[in-house]
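Holo model, magnesium ion. Inputs:
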Amino acid sequence: MKRKAQRRGEFDLIAKYFAPLARGESGALGLTDDAAHLLPAAGHDFIMTTDALVEGVHFLPGDPPAAIAQKALRVNISDLAAKGAKPRAYLLTAILPSSIDNDWLATFASGLKQDQKRFGLTLIGGDTVSTRGPLTLSITAIGEVACGRMVKRSGAQAGDDVWVSGSIGDAGLGLIQSTAQRHSLPPAHSRYLISRYQVPEPRLSLGMALVGLAHACIDVSDGLVADMGHICTASGVSMFINSADVPLSRAAAAAVASGKVSIETLLTSGDDYELVFTAPQSARSRLAVIAAKLRVKIARIGRAGDGEGVSVLDGEGKPRHFDRRGFTHF
Ligand SMILES: [Mg+2]
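Output:
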C-alpha cells in the first residue's frame, strides 16, 4: 500500500487502520511492500472482480462508515458469489476528502474487519489518496473456484428454469426511504428496507453451492429485469418472468399492496445483490435441498427460451410493459 496520504496528524493511517486488516495473509507482507503475491490453492483458478462506490451515487453522505465499508466489500463479494468463487483477498483504494476524520476511519476499518472475518478474506494491498471530490472507494476482490468451473453469464440454455434468491426490490425502496421522496411506510418496514440498501447480503454460500449445477448466474445490481437481460445477451436466449412469482419481502409487498409502489419499480431497481441463475429443470429437487440446507430462500420465477430479451408476465400470463428496464448508476 503506497503512502500518499499523510493526513490526520502525525500518525500513519495505513499502519493504524489498514495494516491490522492485512494480518493472516502472508502474501500481503503486512502492507509494507509495493505489491502482494498470491498463489491459488491447488486445482483452483483465481476469479477477480472490481467495483467502486462513490458518495452520492452508491451511498449517501450520512450513511454510517461501517455500513459503507461493508457495502464496498459486499458488492464485490456478491460478484464472486455469482461466479461460485470463495473469497480470498482484496485490495482497497480509498480516495478520501478532507472531511474524513480519524473516528470515521476507525469505524470504517471496523466494518471491514467484521466482514473480512465473516466472509473469509483479507486485505492485501491498495492505495490511499486525498481528493477535493466525493469519497470514493474501489475494491478489487480475488476469489477461488475449482479450475474451469466458474459459473458464467453465458451458459443459460433454452428450457432452463430461472431462479432468484432472497427478495427483490428492497434496496431500491430503501434508497427511496433514505431520501426526502420517501413514502409513508410503517417505520419498521422503512428501517428494514434502508438496511437492505445500506448493507446488502451477498449470497455467498448459495453461489458456491451452484457450481456444477447452475448453467448461468449473475448478481442483481442493476435491477432484476436488466440483469436477466445480461444473461440473455451473453447466452443467446430469451427469458420470461412471472411477476407474481418474484419474491418480495413483507415490507415491499405491503408497499405494493398499499398502492404506493409499483411492481415495475421493484423489478427494475438496483442494489439487491441477490443471485439470479438458470438451471435445468432436472435440478429442481437438488436446488430445494441446497436452499433448505443453507437456509436461503430461492424462488423459480420464469424460464429461458429461444430468441432474445426479457418479458415480464402479469398474474394472467399477459406481457407487462415497462417504461424502464433497470437502474443505472451513471
Ligand atoms: Mg455483478
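DSSP finds ten helices and twelve strands in the chain. The CA atoms of residues 58 and 89 lie 23 Å apart.
Archived with the compound record.
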